[in-house]
């Protein structure tokens, strides 16, 4: 019976090619627009570390003076001072912890190379950065805990920089000249680009990761400068480490809800101690967001992307409504044919199923054309100057969603016309014919 309905639907579509083309085009345009923006929204709002994000937390304490933003009701600053970062890190209350900031300088090419000096960004952090965030390595491994403690001149470089300097060969053990200082390369990253770049939302949120990674203590010993946000809230001394200036991000790994609650109590106790010592003017004002909460707090997904996604869905609704009107006109125009079939014994259920199959075939054609329009739309998004533009690619999950959405839209559009067509009284149609 299903094959018979398919043949009937196909013949009905061929009998009115212009109307069929209009319905397919309407659905395809709506599907293409909505899936383009939903794909962009899906890419930007995804979990950058599935399976681990619930165990990674961003601690915040409030060292601001009372004169700034009231007392206690405001959110603590997102950046830690050097003193607070060191104090929290060395208490060892978390399973893993890493403090970090971004630097920028020039890498000199190896001796004898024809390359020019390369401007790169760097991440100055601890070795736990790599294990906490499951950073993949192509060659070598992170530096050791002894390298962290001893401020060793070691570095991890990106796959991209390794390719530029050494042609992609295993460069572990070779020397890297960064900012006029020599570092022994201990590891080369494999491709790694978390989306968004969650660990530092103050710089490019959707950009590439840094090319050079150096131990935090080494960076402070060499006085490697900050290439990012610095928030000073008092009299500075010319030295960031002794000035009331926040410039350090910190992440901790807490493997259970109990550990997270204990760490938050630790932050409160630490703030109370600093308040009692006169260093913090405010009463304890702390936050401990997990990774996804941190992304939501910082509104990582641009509002214009959300707005465009809603507008695209609204446009799809308009297309579906137009398709409903076209299907209604098409089905009612075939009242005579439907009346004859009813008179010959076809049930309303059979007529309804046949018409829905016809609507489904329109949806399938609309899905294929909509898929092409989605690819075109994503290509247009990638031509935009936005930082996230290069990430706009159709993913397998969204490909399936496109096809399902098109089929669902066509079936929804066909429900009312098919139901109205089933109500046709065969006696009246035969009499009028």
TrEMBL record:
One of its GO terms (molecular function) is ATP binding. This is ABC transporter ATP-binding protein. One of its GO terms (cellular component) is plasma membrane. The keyword Transferase does not apply. Keywords: ATP-binding, Cell membrane, Membrane, Nucleotide-binding, Transmembrane, Transmembrane helix. It is found in: Cell membrane. Residues 312-422 form the ABC3 transporter permease C-terminal domain. PANTHER family: ABC-TYPE MACROLIDE FAMILY EXPORT SYSTEM PERMEASE COMPONENT 2, MEMBRANE COMPONENT OF TRANSPORTER-RELATED. Residues 20-262 form the MacB-like periplasmic core domain. The chain crosses the membrane at residues 21-44, 309-329, 350-378, 398-419. Its main location: membrane. Pfam families: FtsX, MacB_PCD. InterPro entries: ABC3_permease_C, MacB_PCD, Macrolide_Exporter_MacB. It is a multi-pass membrane protein.
């Amino acid at each position: 019976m299903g094959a018979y309905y398919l043949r009937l639907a196909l013949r009905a579509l061929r009998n009115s090619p212009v109307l069929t083309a209009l319905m397919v085009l309407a659905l395809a345009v709506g599907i293409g627009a909505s899936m383009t923006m939903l794909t962009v929204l899906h890419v930007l709002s995804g979990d950058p570390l599935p399976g681990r994000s619930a165990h990674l937390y961003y601690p915040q304490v409030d060292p601001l003076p009372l004169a700034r933003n009231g007392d206690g009701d405001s959110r603590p600053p997102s950046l830690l001072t050097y003193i607070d970062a060191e104090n929290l890190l060395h208490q060892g209350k978390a399973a893993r912890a890493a403090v970090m900031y971004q630097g920028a300088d020039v890498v000199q090419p190896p001796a004898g190379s024809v390359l020019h000096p390369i401007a790169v960004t760097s991440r100055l952090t601890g070795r736990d950065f790599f294990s906490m965030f499951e950073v993949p390595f192509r060659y070598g491994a992170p530096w050791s805990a002894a390298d962290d403690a001893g401020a060793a001149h070691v570095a991890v470089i990106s796959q991209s920089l390794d390719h530029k300097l050494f042609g992609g060969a295993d460069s572990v053990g070779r020397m890297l000249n960064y900012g006029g200082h020599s570092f022994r390369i201990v590891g080369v990253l494999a491709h790694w680009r978390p989306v968004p770049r969650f660990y530092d939302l103050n710089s490019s949120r959707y950009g590439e990761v840094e090319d050079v990674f150096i131990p935090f203590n080494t960076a402070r010993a060499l006085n490697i400068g900050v290439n990012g946000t610095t928030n000073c809230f008092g009299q500075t001394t010319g030295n960031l480490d002794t000035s009331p200036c926040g410039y350090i991000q910190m992440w901790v790994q807490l493997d259970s809800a109990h550990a997270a609650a204990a760490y938050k109590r630790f932050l409160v106790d630490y703030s109370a101690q600093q308040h009692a010592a006169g260093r913090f003017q405010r009463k304890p004002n702390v936050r401990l967001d997990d990774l996804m909460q941190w992304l939501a707090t910082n509104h990582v997904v641009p509002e214009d992307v959300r707005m465009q996604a809603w507008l695209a869905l609204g446009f799809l609704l308009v297309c579906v409504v137009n398709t409903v009107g076209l299907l209604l006109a098409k089905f009612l125009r075939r009242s005579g044919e439907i009346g004859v079939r009813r008179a010959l014994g076809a049930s309303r259920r059979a007529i309804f199923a046949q018409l829905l199959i016809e609507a489904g075939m329109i949806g399938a054609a609309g899905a294929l054309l909509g898929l092409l329009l989605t690819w075109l739309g994503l290509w247009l998004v990638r031509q935009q100057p936005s930082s996230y533009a290069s990430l706009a690619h159709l993913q397998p999950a969204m490909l399936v969603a496109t096809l399902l959405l098109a089929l669902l839209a066509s079936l929804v559009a066909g429900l009312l016309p098919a139901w109205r067509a089933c109500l046709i009284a065969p006696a009246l149609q035969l009499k009028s014919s």
